[in-house]
Amino acid sequence: MPETTSSSTSADNAIDSSSTPTETTLLTLIKSTTPPCWLNPLLFNGHLQTFYTALKSTDIPITYKRRTFSSNNALYPGTFAVDFVSHTPTSSSSSDPDPSLPSRTSYYSDEEFEKLGGEDDEKPMLILLHGLSGGSHEIYLRHVLRPLCLDPKEGEEKWEACVVNARGCSMSEITSGVLYNARSTWDVRQIVEWIREKWPKRKLFGVGFSLGANILVNYIGEEGAKCELDAAVVVSNPWNLDVSNLSLQRSFMGKNIYSPAMGTSMRELFETQTEEDNRHHEQIMKYNPDIDEAKVRSIKYLHEFDRYVQCPTWGWPTEGAYYRDASSIDAIYDIRIPVLAIHAEDDPIACDAAAPYVEVQQNENVVLCSTTLGGHLSWFEIGGERWFSRVAEGFLRKMTTEVDLDALKNSRTSGTQEGSVLHAKKKPVYHGVAKKLQNPEPHS
Question: Which of 211, 294, 317, 382 makes a 20 to 30 Å CA pair with 323?
Answer without folding.
Answer: 294
